[in-house]
Amino acid sequence: MRRAFLFVATVLCVEGQIVSAQDKTADQGVYTSAQAARGATVFEAHCVSCHREGGTAPVMVGARFTKSFADATLLSVFTTIQTTMPRNAPNSLAEAEYVDVVAHLLKLNGYPDGMTELALAGLGDIKVPGQGGSLDFTLVHVVGCLAQAGRAWTLGKATDPVRTRAPEAATDAEAAELEQAALGTRSFRLQQVYGAPAGWTGQKVAAKGFLTRAGTEERVNVTSMRVLSTPCPN
User: Fold this and answer.
1) Owning domain of residue 160
2) DSSP one-letter string for 7-28
């Protein structure tokens, strides 16, 4: 039986630390689905003839998109598109259309939509997550051994944090992979966790949440947890 907790909360601040615009990343719901749909229409009309399998330009999905723009701001994505596309008429579309295309590319690459449209003025404050750079304030998943120390809950012997785009508890397929993950040496204090179901303590647990720090202590402001079937070694 799948056993998971989902912590539903609007994260406006974490342990008294306000997440500024400069800390925003593209996986925090920075565009709307309607905006991405408009961008898809523009893309189909002006871009897809080149940016397709077998076309004269690369398909900007997956590793190619990440390799090109990892740790860059969305303003860099916008400027690249505006100054090079359409191929025979760069900078010929309205600025709003280019912004909509950025939203479309984010959707194609699996970044979640949100409640507020992407705006040109804010593009420089939002980064594309990459393999490098700080993970502070980003949504991550970790696997470790659940323990309680006083009123605090921790994940010990934990893996290194890895970026994720889904705050929900791990799916059955994800859990099967995480079961095989070797434990690590990290330790995370779990925020927003005030108790755990019977039988979870001492078990291998997959947690997702926003990574923060308080001095040398690493913390995860938890959005969801799922217990795995593997017990932790004593």
Assistant:
1) 4-19+137-231
2) -----SEETTEE--GGGEETTT
